[in-house]
Write a structure and sequence with these properties.
CATH architecture: 3-Layer(aba) Sandwich
Distance between the termini: 61 Å
Number of domains: 1
CATH class: Alpha Beta
Shape: globular
Order of helices and strands: HEEEEEEHEEHHH
Length: 186
């Protein structure tokens, strides 16, 4: 199966499973910091979310496959779903890794977390990460406890445009929490 097709198949499967579990799914028009999907429990003011990266790997014609995630993506509100295709139409192999799972169970090398899956052992090696009612509960807990400001800093981009004549200028910027000062000067 084509890699792009596999990724779309995984994304559709994951969105379907989350929505059935009463977790709202949004598809951003960007793929920044691993955010293939955003998962929410509501859309009212102050809504909280987590970032979801969708991965699909095939073990149909290969005995091994791997997944790599940049270290900077992984936070407490980052989740990786992995769909493994074995060629069987009767089985759906869907695994869910919270940020804490990735940090504790994946190998960190060269600023990347890496998971190697083997056709002969992936079902037993990854059994504690099978997408289940328990994982749904854990995802909802992650969303409720998320540091929203920290996650927005990962997915929100800024834009600045200025037109000046004959001026030399230097500027720096930072996205983060606004800091209040007791004495302000203008």
């Amino acid at each position: 199966m084509d890699t792009a097709l596999m990724e779309y198949t995984a994304e559709d499967l994951i969105a379907h499973k989350l929505q059935r579990a009463k977790i709202l799914v949004a598809k951003p028009k960007f793929a920044q910091e691993g955010a293939d999907l955003l998962a929410l429990l509501g859309v009212s003011d102050g809504a909280k979310f987590c970032r979801i990266q969708c991965k699909g790997r095939s073990l149909v014609s290969s005995s091994t496959a791997h997944v790599e995630i940049p270290r900077r993506y992984v936070s407490d509100a980052f989740i990786v779903f992995l769909f493994v295709d074995t060629g069987s139409f009767d089985e759906t192999h869907l695994f869910c890794f919270l940020g804490t799972d990735i940090k504790a169970n994946w190998k960190l090398t060269d600023d990347q977390y890496r998971l190697i899956i083997t056709k002969s052992q992936f079902a037993t090696e990854l059994s504690k990460f099978v997408f289940s009612d328990q994982k749904i509960h854990e995802i909802k807990k992650v969303i409720v406890n998320v540091d929203v400001q920290g996650e927005f800093n990962k997915v929100v981009c800024g834009y600045f445009e200025a037109t000046l004549d004959n001026v030399t200028m230097s500027a720096t910027g930072e996205v983060g929490n606004a800091k209040s000062k007791s004495d302000s000067s203008v």
